[in-house]
Please model this.
Amino acid sequence: MAPLSKTYYLLNLGCAKNLVEGEHLAGLLLADGWQAVESSQEAELLLVNTCGFIQPAVEEAIEATLELAGDKTEAQCLVVAGCLVGRYGKKLAAQLPEADLLLAPGEALNLLAHLAAPPASRLAISPPRSLFGGADPRALSTGPGWAYLRVSDGCAQSCAFCTIPHIRGPLRSRPLDDLLAEAENLAALGVKELNLVAQDLTSYGRDLGGPGLTQLLGELSNIEGIQWLRPLYLHPDLIDDDLISAILGNPKAVPYFDLPLQHVADPVLQAMGRKRSGAQLKALVRGIRQAAPQAVLRTTLLVGHPGEGEAEFEALRDFVADMAFDRLGVFPYSPEAGTRSARLPAPPALVAQERAERIMSLQRRISRRRLAALQGQTLPVLVLGPHPDSDLVWAGRTQGQAPEVDGLVIITEGSVLPGSIAPCRISATHDYDLEGVLV
Model:
């Protein structure tokens, strides 16, 4: 079957920031008269919006691209966009001839122009300066009641293991008025929960010399219809008492702190290029716990990084046991070409993987214990609709469950319109999920 004219198939890979960029790419196409289809065979345009942050993401993006290319006909156009192109550029163009167009992050706004007049080299790459704003078309893909609000692009930090500054460029914050206008538009569409995301959220506004994250949260809380604000990815070297107080004192900011600590052993933190010591990170976590015992704490850890011997890993494991984070993700270290960390000796990959599994085994028990304390409580839940794994039950999220990275509430009784926030009595708990009944 020949693909239909002006139809597109979009495959989004990677993080929430990338998802927002994919929503804007879809918005551009829809505004230009294109139509989305669910099957790649039906589409004239095949668009892969890639991640390229770490090697597993690179491999996933290339595999997905080659899979689409394997069934591609002469009538179809295959476009690879996003971080993979931003990271590898000309090298990728030479090694991926299957792609008709490669679009780096700085060229995302020019998708339609490049489709109309493809560059001779197949590679559209420029400094990653441009980013989508509130006036640019956006096709939400997150479902009823919630959305991401991307407040900036790029990163001002220099973590030794990270490729983001190379891929996405320096910090570039969106103006406050632009963010408020987009939030108003999202609220008018029925969005009740805004999840603030960025590569460097805690630095928001510093490059503009104007309002920072604290003021942004305050202004967003004044928007009618928005009920929950959740800032994600708070860099632990930058979070301070003022920001903690602003989150806890904001009536719409949920008591949820996402702190990508990465490690707690000083030799590893120093090798990572982190500024705070392990003792300071412990004090940060304890300070939040003391100020708000009800707050949900999430962290992300990186094991197997240079500098991590068995003693450093055991210090990290003890830290996880002592702090009892509500949510935790852990990744085995992947040496990335071009980073400072990649030039240092690191534990073998199998050791890093085994350490990651040990941390997650511990965290599973911690999560089950902490969630068990919620049984019998009635909590506000954002009702999402049918559960992704079963049409027989519905799913939702509490204030303590961020989208896509945390568990769900499995709703076994009751119904409201998807996108509503409704009281739900927790009837059972599991390792990461809850069960509840709408009341």
Summary: The two ends are 50 Å apart (CA to CA). The mean pLDDT is 92. DSSP finds twelve helices and 19 strands in the chain.
